[in-house]
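Kindly inspect this chain:
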Amino acid sequence: MIAIYILFILFVVLNIFDAYLTHKIISAGGVELNPIMRYFMKTVGTTWHAWKVILVTVGCGVFTVYFYRTNFLFVLVFLIILNVVYAIVVVHNYYVEKELKW
């Protein structure tokens, strides 16, 4: 049970870092590579990062709570995979942001 909480909190933190770094990259002249996110950013406007964090966190939270009751192992594996993918995205964004500074 505690593992689910830790993984979910890590997911939220990675989500915030992703939004922050993406904002910095775009501010420095970069572009969003994810077409769904790019459309969302155009539609929502300047508050896209807040909405992204809220919607992704709530969506993952609802998914986690719904499946936790029926399949703990599935939720555990899902959150591990999700965090690994998000960590890769955040590390990638970190290096892209550093390159754009130079």
In short: The chain has one domain: 2-97. The chain has a mean pLDDT of 92.
